[in-house]
C-alpha cells in the first residue's frame, strides 16, 4: 500500500473535511474520495499504517519483557481505561492517554478512546448486526425519546452496500428482530456450544443460539486474507482479516489520490459563517507543535467518536449558536446511551473431557433478542430487549486446585474442564438527563475544555438486567450445565463501549440535532454519522449501523453538493 | 544471541540426562551454598530464596522442566520490580515476611530451610486458607470474589510465569502461533497438552 499523503501544509482548502478516522470516519473518507472529492481527514493521533505500524502483531508472551504486564507509568497513563480489564503491553499503544485527555465522571462512566488513525476500529469486538424495524420504531411506539427519522427500508440498501465491501461472516436465520446480512460463511460453534444450542432451542421456543455475526473474513475477500484464528486482533491483523479503517476503508480512499490525512490534529471547533448559514471549516491545534491552523471545506463530516463529536460541536460557539453548533433544540449533549454489560451466567460443562479445539476463534455465540418482539413475547416488567454473547472453552484456574508438586504440575499441563458463559447486552433508553457538558475547570494538555459525563442506567435497564440474569441461569441450567452462577457486575455505562446519542437524529429540529440524512438541522453541510447520531440504542452492537448511515449520508452529501443545495 | 536455544543445544550434546548446566548450578547454590547466583531487582536474598523454594515445591522438575528451570523466580522478581507500585511492593514484602514468620513459629525456620515434610504441611495449610479465584468473563471477575491470600496469589503468579516461559510455551505445551483453520471439535488425544497461547 502506498504511503499516506500527510502533507496538509500547502493546501488549506478541501472539498470535504472528515474529523476522525475510526469506523465511521474511514467510511466517510472512502465514499467521499471515491466520488471524486478532495478530502482532508483530521486525525487526533499518529498515522497507523496497516501492518507496518502493528509492532506487537506477532509477539508471543515470552517475546515481551513483562509478558503483558504494565509498568506503573503505563498504568498511570491509562488510569481510567485500565478498569476495562483489556489493556496489556500488546495493545497499550492503541489506547488513548487518560492523563493528557482527562474527563470528569459526575457519575461513574468508563470512556474508552483510541487516539490514532483507525481509532477504535483497531480495537473493536467485530460483532456486526443489522438493526430491525423493531428498533427503528421503538421510540415512536413506547414513547421514549423521539422517533427515528428513518426506517429499516431506508438503511437496508446501505447495510448491503457496506457488508459486501467489509465482509461479514455469519449464519442467516430469517428472524424479523435480527435481519440477515449478506454473509460470508459462518465461523463454527465448538462441540459444547453445539450441544448447549440444541438443549436451549428444544426447550425454549423462539430462542436461538448462533455463532456470532462478525466482521472477520472466513474466506479471502477484496484482496484481504482470511482469519487465521490467532485471536490477536487488537494488535492489528497482518492478514487484514477483520474490519478496521486501516485495513479496509482508508487504503482505497488513499488509492484515489484524493485523500490527505493529517495526523496529530486536534479539532478545536467548527467555523460557522452566519451570512452563508453554514460551516466553512474547522480550527485545529497541532498536538505536537501547538500550532493553530484553520482548514476550509464545502462539507464537514464529524466522526470523532460519539462523545468527542459532540464535544467539538459544543465547543463550536458563535453568535448564531451560543450553546454549540446545531444546538437549537437544547438536545446536544443529551440522551447518552450505552448497553448494559457483564450480566449473565457461567457454569461448568461435563461430558466432553475428550474433546478440544484447535485455533483461537475470535468470536463466540450469540442469542438474539427474544422478548418484546411481538405480542406473545411482551414483558410487563420492561420495554425493549436484550441479546447474549458468550462461549464455551476449556479453562479453569489451575491455581485454584488444592494441590502442588510433581503430580499436580503434570496435571495442569492438560487443559482444564469445559466452562460456558452467556452475558447480556440490554438496550438503554434515551434519557434527557443522561448527558455530557463542557468543563472549563478541567483543561486537557492543550488547554481545551474537557467533558463532564453524567449518566446512569435507570429502572428499565435494571429490570432488563434482572431478566437477563434469571434467563441466563435458567437456560444454562436446563442445558445441563453444572454449578451455574448468575452474575451482575452492575457496571455503569461506558463499559459496553457502545456509547450512543448526544446529537440525535430526529424529524423535528426542535427536539433533535440531526435530520434523516445526518445533517445538522441548522447547518446542512455538517454531517454527523458516528454514534452521536443515534436516536435509540437497540440491544445489538451498533458499528454496522454507523457504517451504513455513513455511506448513505456521504452519498446524499455528494448529490446535494452537485445540486448546489449545500 | 538466543541464549535459551544455545543452552538447549549444549544439553543435547551432553546427553539427555544432563539438563542445562547453568540451571543445575542455580539449584545447588540455592540448596547448599545458601546464596543466589543472580541479582534480584526487588527481592532481598531471603525473599528470593523463599519464592524459589515455593516455586520448586509447586512446580518441581519432573520429566518436564520445573518452574526454576525456566527461571520463574527471576521473572517474578522482575514483574514485582517493574509493574508493582510502591505500596504493592511493600505489601509483597510484608506478605513474604508473614509467611516466613508462620514457618518460624511452627517449625523454627524460614520456609526454604524447612525439611520437605514441614514445607508440605505449611503448603497444605496454605491451600486451605488462601482463598480461591472466582469466575471471570472477558478479563474481569464475575460473581463473588474471595480475598486472595499470599500463597494463592504467588502460586498463580508462578503458574503464569511457567506457562509463559518460552521453553514451556513452545516445547512443553501445544504451541500453535498461526492455527489457520479453526477445528471446533478435535479429539484431545490429537492435541496432547493444552494450547500455550490463549
TrEMBL record, chain A:
It comes from the Bacteria. Its cofactor is FAD. Residues 430-549 form the Glucose-methanol-choline oxidoreductase C-terminal domain. This is Choline dehydrogenase. It holds the Pfam family GMC_oxred_N. Keywords: FAD, Flavoprotein, Oxidoreductase. GO terms for molecular function: flavin adenine dinucleotide binding; oxidoreductase activity, acting on CH-OH group of donors. InterPro entries: FAD/NAD-bd_sf, GMC_OxRdtase_N, GMC_OxRtase_C, P2Ox-like. Residues 90-340 form the Glucose-methanol-choline oxidoreductase N-terminal domain. Belongs to the GMC oxidoreductase family. The lineage of its organism: Bacteria, Pseudomonadati, Bacteroidota, Flavobacteriia, Flavobacteriales. PANTHER family: PYRANOSE 2-OXIDASE (PTHR42784:SF1).
TrEMBL record, chain B:
This is Gluconate 2-dehydrogenase subunit 3. It holds the Pfam family Gluconate_2-dh3. InterPro entries: Gluconate_2DH_su3.
Amino acid at each position: 500500500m502506498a504511503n499516506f499523503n500527510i502533507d496538509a501544509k500547502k493546501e488549506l482548502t478541501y472539498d470535504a473535511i472528515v474529523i476522525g478516522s475510526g469506523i465511521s470516519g474511514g467510511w466517510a473518507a472512502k465514499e467521499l474520495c471515491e466520488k471524486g472529492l478532495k478530502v482532508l481527514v483530521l486525525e487526533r493521533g499518529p498515522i497507523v499504517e496497516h501492518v507496518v505500524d502493528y509492532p506487537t502483531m506477532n509477539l508471543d508472551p515470552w517475546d515481551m519483557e513483562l509478558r503483558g504486564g504494565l509498568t506503573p507509568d503505563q498504568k498511570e497513563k491509562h488510569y481510567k481505561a485500565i478498569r476495562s480489564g483489556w489493556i496489556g503491553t500488546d495493545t497499550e499503544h492503541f489506547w488513548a492517554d487518560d492523563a493528557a485527555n482527562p474527563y470528569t465522571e459526575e457519575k461513574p462512566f468508563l470512556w474508552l478512546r483510541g487516539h490514532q488513525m483507525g481509532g477504535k476500529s483497531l480495537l473493536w469486538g467485530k460483532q456486526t448486526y443489522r438493526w430491525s424495524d423493531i428498533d427503528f420504531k421503538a421510540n415512536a411506539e413506547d414513547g421514549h425519546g423521539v422517533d427515528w427519522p428513518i426506517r429499516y427500508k431506508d438503511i437496508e440498501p446501505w447495510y448491503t452496500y457496506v457488508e459486501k465491501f467489509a465482509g461479514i461472516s455469519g449464519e442467516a436465520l430469517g428472524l424479523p428482530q435480527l435481519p440477515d446480512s449478506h454473509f460470508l460463511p459462518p465461523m463454527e460453534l465448538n462441540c459444547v456450544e453445539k450441544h448447549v444450542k440444541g438443549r436451549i432451542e428444544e426447550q425454549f421456543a423462539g430462542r436461538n443460539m448462533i455463532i456470532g455475526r462478525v466482521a472477520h473474513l472466513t474466506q479471502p475477500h477484496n484482496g484481504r486474507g482470511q482469519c487465521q484464528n490467532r485471536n490477536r486482533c487488537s494488535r492489528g491483523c497482518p492478514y487484514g482479516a477483520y474490519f478496521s479503517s486501516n485495513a479496509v476503508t482508508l487504503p482505497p480512499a488513499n488509492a484515489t489520490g484524493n485523500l490527505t490525512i493529517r495526523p496529530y490534529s486536534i479539532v478545536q471547533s467548527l467555523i460557522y459563517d452566519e451570512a452563508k448559514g453554514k460551516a466553512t471549516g474547522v480550527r485545529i491545534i497541532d498536538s505536537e507543535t501547538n500550532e493553530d491552523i484553520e482548514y476550509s471545506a464545502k462539507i464537514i463530516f464529524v466522526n470523532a467518536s460519539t462523545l468527542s463529536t459532540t464535544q467539538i460541536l459544543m465547543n463550536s460557539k458563535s453568535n448564531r449558536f451560543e450553546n454549540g453548533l446545531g444546538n437549537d433544540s437544547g438536545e446536544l449533549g443529551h440522551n447518552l446511551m450505552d448497553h448494559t454489560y457483564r450480566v449473565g451466567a457461567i457454569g461448568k460443562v461435563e461430558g466432553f473431557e475428550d474433546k478440544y479445539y484447535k485455533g483461537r476463534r475470535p468470536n463466540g455465540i450469540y442469542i438474539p433478542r427474544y422478548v418484546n418482539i411481538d405480542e406473545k413475547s411482551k414483558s410487563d416488567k420492561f420495554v425493549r430487549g436484550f441479546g447474549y454473547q458468550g462461549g464455551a472453552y476449556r479453562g479453569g484456574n489451575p491455581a485454584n486446585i488444592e494441590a502442588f508438586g510433581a503430580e499436580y504440575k503434570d496435571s495442569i499441563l492438560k487443559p482444564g474442564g469445559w466452562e460456558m458463559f452467556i452475558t447480556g447486552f440490554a438496550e438503554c433508553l434515551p434519557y434527557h438527563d443522561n448527558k455530557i457538558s463542557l468543563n472549563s475547570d478541567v483543561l486537557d494538555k492543550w488547554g481545551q475544555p474537557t467533558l463532564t459525563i453524567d449518566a446512569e442506567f435507570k429502572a428499565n435497564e435494571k429490570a432488563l438486567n434482572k431478566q437477563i440474569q434469571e434467563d441466563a441461569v435458567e437456560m444454562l441450567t436446563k442445558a445441563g450445565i453444572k454449578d451455574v452462577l448468575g452474575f451482575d457486575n452492575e457496571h455503569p455505562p461506558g463499559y459496553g463501549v457502545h456509547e450512543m446519542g448526544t446529537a440525535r437524529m430526529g424529524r423535528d429540529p426542535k427536539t433533535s440535532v440531526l435530520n434523516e440524512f445526518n445533517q445538522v438541522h441548522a447547518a446542512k453541510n455538517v454531517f454527523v454519522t458516528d454514534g452521536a447520531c443515534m436516536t435509540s440504542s437497540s440491544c445489538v452492537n451498533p458499528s454496522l449501523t454507523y457504517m451504513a448511515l455513513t455511506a448513505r449520508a456521504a452519498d446524499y452529501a455528494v448529490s446535494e453538493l452537485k445540486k448546489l443545495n449545500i | 544471541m538466543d541464549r535459551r536455544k544455545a543452552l538447549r543445544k549444549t544439553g543435547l550434546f551432553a546427553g539427555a540426562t544432563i539438563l542445562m548446566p547453568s540451571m543445575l548450578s542455580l539449584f545447588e547454590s540455592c540448596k547448599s551454598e545458601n546464596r543466589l547466583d543472580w541479582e534480584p531487582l526487588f527481592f532481598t536474598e531471603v525473599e528470593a530464596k523463599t519464592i524459589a523454594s515455593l516455586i520448586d515445591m509447586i512446580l518441581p522438575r519432573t520429566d518436564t522442566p520445573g518452574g526454576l528451570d525456566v527461571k520463574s523466580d527471576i521473572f517474578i522478581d522482575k514483574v514485582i520490580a517493574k509493574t508493582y507500585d510502591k505500596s504493592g511492593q511493600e505489601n509483597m514484602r510484608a506478605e513474604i515476611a508473614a509467611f516466613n514468620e508462620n514457618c518460624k513459629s511452627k517449625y523454627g525456620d524460614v520456609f526454604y530451610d524447612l525439611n520437605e515434610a514441614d514445607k508440605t504441611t505449611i503448603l497444605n495449610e496454605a491451600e486451605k486458607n488462601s482463598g480461591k479465584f472466582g469466575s471471570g468473563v472477558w478479563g474481569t471477575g464475575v460473581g463473588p470474589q474471595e480475598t486472595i491470600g499470599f500463597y494463592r496469589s504467588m502460586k498463580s503468579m508462578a503458574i503464569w510465569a511457567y506457562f509463559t516461559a518460552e521453553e514451556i510455551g513452545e516445547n512443553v505445551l501445544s504451541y500453535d502461533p498461526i492455527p489457520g483453520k479453526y477445528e471446533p471439535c478435535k479429539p484431545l488425544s490429537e492435541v496432547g497438552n493444552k494450547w500455550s497461547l490463549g
